[in-house]
């Protein structure tokens, strides 16, 4: 099993790799299209900004392949966000694998604009990524942009508004939370993805 | 709904976890990784590793234990202690830490907060504040890791809370020194006032002695999380039992 983690910038790059290692899988960080083509599973990790991540994908000419591949692709946090059409963050045109656009959480007096911490999921429909995950399970979120629930959402969560927490369509999967930081439930998500 | 966080703090000195009362008389309580994994298993929501020797001796947190921890922990963690340059911050974040917490270096050079936020984003930058009551108001202290150097500053706590947020800090940990180590409960008055000034998450620290203290804290102040050390290390309070207790009392916690 060859797993690649696409190097799309950001600082906290080792966490996903460590999480996969805990499950017994080696993975490789790369921005090399040839290596990504050779992989069995592709992960788009999630730290940084939409503008910067898209810039890196286009610098290494990865966007087209990532959009057209039939291999399982998992986007985590920002990695999920750039799978949509557009993000208000840096007014960025993204990959467009999923329909919809990322909006910024409203500024509220009694709520930090960044949704940070453990929140529970409401499972909306049968999901390959959420297999054996009980409804109401908690996951670790840290994000300022969100996408609304639509037909591709298999779970939602609620902060200042209800938003899409898990999306899936064909071979494409995305989670707004960080499975690599979400304890046992998070490991299960990664395992479910690898087993696709 | 976002859960209230329970955060054990592991004070690290010479690669061991230690605990002192009112920042004095440190005693070794255990191995870093062993304790970290135990708390993780018990349901801790996040961990803070605070290198209490780092700040006064002007050195950076050792990375050896850090990468070991990052490899095994599957919950978020924050590293504090003596981070005074962008390079140090980057090293720690690259090793797998989710956040860095800055205390004394932010007081000495407040624009350091802006710089870190610019490079790493607000969500990575936590400001630790050690505060105690003097005369008629709360004041910020610096170099609290070392009793010989620990000093009160002229900075008022509530002014500083506003300033660090204006500079982009993503979270504040308010350590109420007057209660720290007393096990008599959190400093509700100070924390309630601080929370009213916060538009970023506020984590309470100092004074927890029993489960009821956490309940009192969450019910009276609205803070986002509670940090404690001694009671977890001494097993006076077991995190799993604490969370069951809070859940039964109607506090939204991850179980």
Give the CATH H-level superfamily of chain A.
Class I glutamine amidotransferase (GATase) domain
Principal-axes shape call of chain B: globular
Summed up, the domain count of chain B is 1
Largest β-sheet summary of chain A: 8 strands, mixed
Categorize the overall geometry of chain A: globular
Q: Kindly report the greatest chain-chain contact and the residue count on each side.
A: A-B, 35 and 33 residues
If you compute it from the alpha carbons, what radius of gyration of chain B comes out, rounded to the nearest whole angstrom?
17 Å
Q: Can you tell me the CATH topology of chain A?
A: Rossmann fold
Q: Tell me the helix content of chain B.
A: 25-40%
CATH architecture designation of chain B = Alpha-Beta Barrel
Which terms summarize this structure?
heterodimer; A: 196 residues; alpha/beta; Rossmann fold; eight-stranded mixed β-sheet; four-stranded mixed β-sheet; 6 helices; globular; B: 255 residues; TIM Barrel; eight-stranded parallel β-barrel; 28% strand
Lay out the secondary structure.
The complex is a heterodimer of chains A (196) and B (255).
Chain A: E1 3-6, H1 14-22, E2 27-30, H2 33-37, E3 41-44, H3 50-59, H4 63-68, E4 73-76, H5 78-81, E5 86-87, E6 92-93, E7 101-104, E8 115-120, E9 122-123, E10 138-143, E11 145-146, E12 153-158, E13 162-169, E14 172-175, H6 183-194
Parallel strand pairs in A: 1-2, 1-3, 3-4, 4-14, 5-7
Antiparallel strand pairs in A: 5-6, 7-11, 8-10, 9-12, 12-13, 13-14
Chain B: E1 5-13, E2 16-21, E3 24-31, H1 32-42, E4 47-51, H2 64-72, E5 77-80, H3 86-94, E6 99-102, H4 104-108, H5 111-120, E7 125-134, E8 137-142, E9 151-156, H6 157-166, E10 171-176, H7 188-196, E11 202-205, H8 211-221, E12 225-228, H9 230-233, H10 239-248
Parallel strand pairs in B: 1-4, 1-12, 4-5, 5-6, 6-7, 7-10, 10-11, 11-12
Antiparallel strand pairs in B: 1-2, 2-3, 7-8, 8-9
Concise structural overview:
Chain A is α/β, with parallel strands linked by helices and 196 residues long. Chain A is 23% helix and 30% strand. Chain A has a single domain, classed as Class I glutamine amidotransferase (GATase) domain (Rossmann fold), CATH 3.40.50.880.
